[in-house]
Every structure is written in C-alpha cells, then in structure tokens.
Amino acid sequence: MSYKTEQEAFWAGQFGDEYRERCALKPELVAARTACMARMLRKAAPVGSAFEVGCNIGLNLVALKNVSPATELDAIEINAESAKAANALGIAKVEAASVLEYEPARTYDLTMICGVLIHLNPEVLPQVYDVLFNASNRHILLFEYYNPTPVEVNYRGHEGRLFKRDWAGEMLDRFKGQLELKDYGFFYHRDPISWSDDGTWFLLEKR
Q1: Tens-digit pLDDT profile for residues 182-200
Q2: Residues 110 and 141 sit within 8 Å (Cβ to Cβ)
Q3: SS3 of 200, please?
Q4: Between 59-67 and 27-40, two packed helices, what is the crossing angle to 10 degrees?
Q5: Domains along the chain?
Q6: 201 - beta bridge partners?
Q7: What's the whole-model pTM score?
Q8: What is the predicted pLDDT for the residue at 8?
Q9: Taking Cα atoms as reference points, which of 96, 151, 141 lies closest to residue 118?
C-alpha cells in the first residue's frame, strides 16, 4: 500500500503495531466504551448499518454491536494487522485501506470516526470529511480531542502526529445547509462508568 502522508505510514507501520498491543480489548475497556456509545447514539436510533474509518482492532465496533446487535458493520483500518484482528471478531467486514484512497461502495445510516482525525495531516481533512459525508445517508459521529482553534500537541515524543481543532464546526461549515448538529458531549477520564480519554463527541445529521 502506498501512502500520501507521513502520518499514514506512521500508523501503518511499527508505531501502529505497538499501539495495537497497548489497546487490547479488556472487559473494563469494552464496558466503558459501550457506555460511551450508548450515550453518543441515543438520538441516532435506529442504526441499521454503520461504517467506521480507522477501527484499529475493533473497540468501537464491539461497543456499537453491544448497543445495537442488529446493526450491519463495515470498517477500514490502515494497519493491516489491526484490520486482520478486527475482522477476526466476526462482527464486521473490515478492509485494510487508507481513507485517502477509499471510496465506499454504498451508504450507511451512520459513519463514524473516533480518535483518528487527530492523527491525520491537516491538509487531507477535507478529503476525509467528504468520505464521512458521502458514505452517510443520515448520521455522522465524530469522537476526538477538541480545541476551538487548530493546535498541534507532541505525541509520545513525536511531532506532527497529534492535532486538535473544531472538527464538527469544520464539517458544518463545509456542508453548510446539508448538515446540522444533533447532539454532542464530553467524556471525562474520571467518570466511573463511561470513562474515556477526555474526548469530545459530536453527532451530526444530514438534512
């Protein structure tokens, strides 16, 4: 697979492999993410089908399946071994692919991206926003680190690997008149039930 940005190669390679090893699907992590997913999708039901960009080993897929067992799930993941691990769960069709070279063959009730936009080269964000928008026939879920203005943060000693910005605001501006904000929230790392890494989520709906 060829890569258009340094960030893609970074996650497809050794660092992505190490990340996979750190993110095992431990029961307590699955339970917490399932609680998060239930809150994030409370205004999106029913979700007959969903597509995730960057599923890693499938934590969000498992959580969504726990919340909505009948949902048909598809996903892409840039790291081939992580995609293989997610596929092995048997709950989704997961393809090893870069979002920058991917054209979904169909649309879904929900498209989602969780903890992936923050790691992409800012220059390619419009292309990723287009994939999320075009692959959805109703809802889009964004679950990322938020900041009102774009900012870069050092990530485990690496530069150019972690960014924060107003992802939802950019999508609402890019698709003005076609998207609206339906729900949003924040998950605090000290929440005893739906804890997460201080992430902010936004549920957008097509008009």
Answers
A1: 999 999 999 988 877 899 9
A2: yes
A3: strand
A4: 60
A5: 6-198 (3.40.50.150)
A6: 143, 185
A7: 0.94
A8: 83
A9: 151
